[in-house]
Amino acid sequence: MDGAPPTLEVRCLAGMWEDPPSGKGVHVTVHMIAALSFFWWLIFVFFWVIFIWLTMSIARSKGYSPLLWGLLACILPLITVIILLVLPARSQA
């Protein structure tokens, strides 16, 4: 040690693909990217399930089949909710 304070080396993502002297930086970065990617997929799936539940709740409250509208919401989520909000409640015959 020459008395200089330790420095923190910061690399951009493109620079991390070069082999650093220790060889560990690349693997840590790849694992972090994979973990973050999985985390975002979990958030996406969570909100997708909440959205389908919301669609099914609207359909049930208006007297329509929640299963049918839930399946439609899997394919066309936003359009299905808009249609359900515009449809009148089914009359009890």
Features:
93 residues; mainly alpha; 3 helices
Description:
This protein is an all-alpha fold and 93 residues long. Helix content is 61%, strand content 0%. The protein is built from three helices and no strands. The protein has helices at residues 25-61, 66-75, 77-86. Helix 1 runs antiparallel to helix 2 (66-75). The N and C termini lie far apart (87 Å). The model has no long low-confidence stretch (mean pLDDT 80).
Average pLDDT reading: 80
Structural class given helices, strands, pairing? mainly alpha
Which outline best applies? rod-shaped
Topology order in helix (H) and strand (E) letters: HHH
How far the N terminus sits from the C terminus, by CA atoms, comes to 87 Å
Count of DSSP-assigned helices: 3
State the share of residues found in helices, binned by percent. Answer: 55-70%
The whole-angstrom Rg is 25 Å
**pLDDT < 50 stretches:** none
The major beta sheet can be summarized as: none
Number of strands: 0
Give the percentage of residues in beta strands. under 5%
Task: Please sum up the structure shown.
With 93 residues, the protein is mainly α. It has helices spanning 25-61, 66-75, 77-86.
How are the elements arranged and paired?
Elements: H1 25-61, H2 66-75, H3 77-86
Helix pairs in contact: 1-2, 1-3, 2-3
